[in-house]
Amino acid sequence: MAKLLHLSRPSRRVRDVVRTWWALRRQKRRRRRAQGSGDGVPPQVVLNPAEPFWCPTDPAWVSVRLSWSYPADAFPDGTFEIAQDLDGEGDFETIAWPAVSDMIGTWGGVSSYEWVHVYATNTNALLRYRVRCVDVGGEGAWSDVCEVDINNRDWAFP
Questions:
Q1: Both 100 and 150 in a single domain?
Q2: pLDDT at residue 86 greater than cutoff 80
Q3: Do 105 and 136 belong together in one domain?
Q4: CA-closest candidate to residue 139, choices 83, 78, 91
Q5: Which of 29, 94, 121, 136 could tie 125 with a disulfide, CB 3.0–4.6 Å?
Q6: Residue 145 is assigned to a structural domain of this protein
Q7: Residues 42-66: pLDDT tens digits?
Q8: Phi-psi region for residue 3, left (φ > 0), alpha (ψ -120 to 50) or beta?
Q9: What is the extent of the structural domain holding 20?
């Protein structure tokens, strides 16, 4: 009986390996939390008002420039998910995945990003966009919805 109990107990070496693994895992989680919003989830993106403009190659189409802010170095390996409401009924579909490393500038701990939806529409339309950061640790909250109302083609000419 004593021999069976001895075989069922893990050896000291196994215990040390498990302890080391657990300590490294906890350290990795602490570092991730320090970078993000505290729970390992990317923080929310701040989406600026969109800028519609005529497509330079085809003036019958309107393109839309989206710009947003995000904490610098928050999740450097992540990507941004850009979604558009295609039917106006709240059914958003992903249209682009720009990388977090594709910033246009950083100031005061905040990075700025920009993406152009080329050939967004050639008719009167209400275009709705939203953005979030996606990382291995999870998906951040969606930004507020940004609406671009293309209901009058004279908007491009002041």
A1: yes
A2: no
A3: yes
A4: 78
A5: 121
A6: yes
A7: 888 899 999 998 888 888 898 999 9
A8: alpha
A9: 2-35
